[in-house]
Amino acid sequence: MRHEVIVGVERRRFWPDEMKLSILREVGVGGATVTDVALRHDVTRQHIYQWRRQMKDKGLWPEPEGISFLALDAPEQPVMPVPKPDDELPAEIGFANGRTLRCPAGMAEADILRLIRLVETA
């Protein structure tokens, strides 16, 4: 009979709630995605999502209520041109999480993409 002993680093780690919350707060800061934060802390993306759910269940992570506004790093000049009455209709984008993003007609594509990333990470 043959026995095999596997030697390696134990990967099971303990993460206190304060550390989990600190890591969760990094998502979206400076455009950081869940993947970016997971790689930075040597965890999987699933850990981030699971921790978010755990913190919500414990009442430590706020539940989104209704409409929420996100801060943007806006340039000095106006981002959105004022639409003329003859312009096309505004764009409306629906997300899988139930949120809706409405953008005025004529808004720059780069600005729309930035808003989409912010809504998806919120």
Detail the topology: elements first, then pairings.
Elements: H1 17-25, H2 34-40, H3 45-58, E1 91-94, E2 100-103, H4 109-121
Shape: elongated
| End-to-end C-alpha gap | 55 Å
Please, what is the average pLDDT?
A: 81
Examine the coordinates and then state which fold CATH places here, giving the name of the CATH topology of the largest domain.
Arc Repressor Mutant, subunit A
Helix content: 25-40%
Strands of the widest sheet, in order across it, are 1-2
* Tally of discrete structural domains: 2
| CATH class membership of the largest domain | Mainly Alpha
- Share in β-strands: 5-15%
What are the segments in which pLDDT stays under 50 over at least 5 consecutive residues?
none
Describe the largest sheet.
2 strands, antiparallel
Tell me the structural class. mainly alpha
CATH structural architecture of the largest domain: Orthogonal Bundle
Number of H- or I-type helical stretches = 4
> What is the β-strand count?
2
* Radius of gyration from the alpha-carbon trace, in angstroms: 21 Å
Encode the helix/strand succession as letters.
HHHEEH
Structure in words:
By secondary structure, the protein is mostly helical. It has 2 domains: 1-63, Arc Repressor Mutant, subunit A, CATH 1.10.10; 65-122, no CATH class. It contains 4 helices and 2 strands. Strands 1-2 form a two-stranded antiparallel ribbon. Strand 1 (91-94) and strand 2 (100-103) form a beta hairpin. Helix 1 (17-25) crosses helix 3 (45-58) and helix 2 (34-40) crosses helix 3 (45-58). It starts with 16 loop residues before the first helix and ends with a helix.
